[in-house]
């Protein structure tokens, strides 16, 4: 899934919906992957109840101040 605007669809919200759909289908999510970069605060409080983000590197996490509204 590509998220085009993390402000409209936060990754955590998308993951919660995906995992709920997976449960209803009788399966589960084993991991997520971040392709590219994102503000670090999006993943700071990633709940342990959700599948982990596999291979997340510090170099992918950007300073949230870069995205502050003027």
Explained architecture:
With 70 residues, this protein is mainly alpha-helical. The protein has one helix spanning 11-24, and strands at residues 38-39, 61-62. It is globular, with a radius of gyration of 13 Å. The relative contact order is 0.19. The model has no long low-confidence stretch (mean pLDDT 91).
Give a short summary of the structure.
The chain has 70 residues and is mainly alpha-helical. The protein has one helix spanning 11-24; strands spanning 38-39, 61-62.
Features:
70 residues, mainly alpha, two-stranded parallel ribbon, 1 helix
Break the fold down into its secondary structure elements and pairings.
Elements lengths: L10 H14 L13 E2 L21 E2 L8
Parallel strand pairs: 1-2
Shape call: globular
Overall pLDDT: 91
For the biggest β-sheet, the strand order reads 1-2
Helix content: 10-25%
End-to-end Cα distance:
29 Å
Portion in beta strands: 5-15%
Specify the structural class.
mainly alpha
Low-confidence stretches: none
Question: What is the gyration radius calculated from CA atoms?
Answer: 13 Å
What string, H for helix and E for strand, traces the elements in order? HEE
**For the report, how would you describe the main beta sheet?**
2 strands, parallel
Summed up, the helix count is 1
Topology, number of strands: 2
Number of domains: 1
